[in-house]
Amino acid sequence: MKNPITGLNKVFDNRIRLGVMSILLVNEEVNFNDLKQMLEVTDGNLATHLVNLEENGYIKVHKGFIGKKTNTTYAVTKSGEKAFTDHITALENMIKGIK
Fold first, then answer.
1. What distance in Å separates the CA atoms of residue 43 and residue 49, rounded to the nearest whole number?
2. What is the C-alpha separation between 15 and 17, in angstroms, rounded?
3. Which of 61, 81, 94, 95 has its CA 20 to 30 A from that of 7?
4. Which residue range is the domain that position 16 belongs to?
5. Does residue 23 fall inside a structural domain?
6. Torsion on CA atoms 79, 82, 84, 89, rounded to nearest 10
7. Structural domain contains residue 71
């Protein structure tokens, strides 16, 4: 019997990183405050998970300004999109395979 967790990506084990990737996959880019509000997490908690995703090359960060106010936006990278869709496929296969 094949190991049911083969193909799962450890980076996406956390619900916040899973949420970030789910949001970014269906949006071109999302700013920090919108992510924080959608996921209902603190600044520090979100920032920690965003750094993890960025260090793994799954998201890209763009820092800019709107007027004089800073605005940080996030978008999924091509490798992030592939890694996340592979993870979702592995989850689906695991669910289908367990009866």
1. 10
2. 6
3. 61
4. 10-92
5. yes
6. -160
7. yes
- Distance between CA atoms of residues 97 and 64, nearest Å: 46
Q: Indicate which CATH number applies to the domain containing 86.
A: 1.10.10.10
Contacts of 54 (CB under 8 A, 6+ apart): 60, 61
**Is 99 part of any domain?**
no
Give 30-48 as a DSSP string: EEHHHHHHHHT--HHHHHH
pTM, entire model: 0.89
Residue 20 forms part of a structural domain: yes
Q: Under 8 Å CB-to-CB from 62, ≥6 apart: which residues?
A: 29, 72, 73, 74, 75
Q: How many CA atoms lie within 13 A of 25 on its CB side?
A: 17
Total tally of structural domains belonging to the chain: 1
Q: Which tens digits make up the pLDDT trace of 6-47?
A: 789 999 999 999 999 999 999 999 999 999 999 999 999 999
